[in-house]
Amino acid sequence: MIKSDVIKKFADIMYISDGNSNEQKTICNFITKIGPQELFELLEQIESRPLSKVQLDQLLILHQQKNVSDDFFYYYWLDMPAEPLCEVEEPNFAFAKDKYIISVEQLKWGFKRIFTDCLLMFGNIQRGYDVLSRMTKEQLVQQFEKFRIDTKQIKARGRTLEFEEIDKEDRYLISEMACKTFATTKTEAEFVDFVVNSYKKATNQGIKNPLFKDILSGKYIPDIPTQMSIFNDDSDVSEVGSEKEAKEKANDLAKRFLAAHQKALANTNRYLSLCNDLDVYVATSMRTKKNFIEMANFCENVFTLLKKDGIILRYFDPTISAAESHEDKGLIECLMVKSARILVYASGDRDSYGKDAEAAMALSLGKPTIFYCPEEYKKQFFKNVHPLSRLVNFQTGVAGGVVVCTSEKEVADTLKRIVENKMRYDLVQKENSPGYYLLKEHFTQSVVRVQTNDKLLSTAFWNHYV
């Protein structure tokens, strides 16, 4: 294979801006016009005279790059890895029995893996290469263990304490608005009095048989607390024909609230006891009964799909957890985000500061983050527009992005691949912007890593982190 063909073959992963001999030499422009001439001479005859590790080291030095350890050479070019960071592309070549690279395809296969791993772990190919290239096998294993999930441990661990079951129809009663409503009336008796008073106001306005949900919503009392709007979505659309009936319905609702609230508080205690072993935090915003039911179904469907595959994940279900105060709720949710390995963000029908903040926290902690948005327009918005789609890990400087899914099955499949360390990525350069690397999740084409080609930005950025 002649030089021009070799350069063309590597053009999707190697880059050079203008071919200027003064161009700074990096591992990313090793096989380009400014690469060492000896490299192309060797590659022209690689099938008859395989490339040795010593030769590769010499070529790297000629390109002003660090040479590589024997273990690094073996791991990235000579075999399929046993425990990689992510799914490795099946090679379209045969490995040699001895320690040689025997084809241009094999050489590219190794570089593509190196670039992918460097972006995943370091957020910058050159930085990653400089660190990994000199590592021993033991050091490489230790490095990868920091980023791999122990799938066997997850599948083999025992059961947790059981959570209190709350009927889906009653989960909206643990919402902050519902809790504030009952807190406003202070006691069950005061709540009942409010309902009876609301009924009387309705009849005084000439409405003989008002709907129970309208009585609850405060429709007939002008100065009703705004929190009562949570009951606008109550499924009880029956008519109330008497004061006695209004009182009975109010008593029943108050009992349902107290029962659901106590169970939700107990569940929160279970979650707090599970901080050291929480897999997934589900972030969402729920303002109506419908929201609560939809989110309960979403959690049930996604994690049941995983369970069928033998993966039982421990997840924070926001529809069964409550706190004694608004402040405590915020602290608990921050702790859950910090504790969980993965965050799943359910977009819902409205945006909210809370779930956006939780997603931002997860991304800035370097956690895998999945956005679930069934609507196509929202999918495109989160993939290409939303500022939270890509954020920097404040500890390492790695720029991470979200995986955007449009179905419950897609969410479950992505979680499964994350937990089994089988994520598949496509390494690409931004269109018309050589050296601007994007690492995309293969199935959704969501950008999960970014390396800019703005040299000033890159220098300023890594000066802050290195």
Structure write-up:
By secondary structure, this protein is of the alpha/beta class. It has three domains: 3-148, no CATH class; 169-261, no CATH class; 275-420, 3-Layer(aba) Sandwich (Rossmann fold), CATH 3.40.50. The protein has helices spanning 3-10, 37-44, 53-62, 70-78, 104-122, 125-132, 137-145, 151-156, 176-185, 188-204, 212-217, 243-273, 289-308, 326-339, 353-364, 376-384, 408-419, 455-465, and strands at residues 51-52, 100-101, 280-283, 315-316, 342-346, 369-372, 390-392, 399-401, 403-405, 425-429, 437-441, 447-451. The strands form four sheets. A five-stranded parallel beta sheet has the order 4-3-5-6-9, with helices on both faces. A three-stranded antiparallel beta sheet has the order 10-11-12, with helices on one face. The radius of gyration is 29 Å and the shape is elongated.
Beta-strand residue percentage: 5-15%
Count of separate structural domains = 3
Instruction: Report the uncertain regions.
Output: none
DSSP helical segment count: 18
Largest sheet features: 5 strands, parallel
Structural class: alpha/beta
If you compute it from the alpha carbons, what radius of gyration comes out, rounded to the nearest whole angstrom?
29 Å
Quaternary state of the chains: single chain
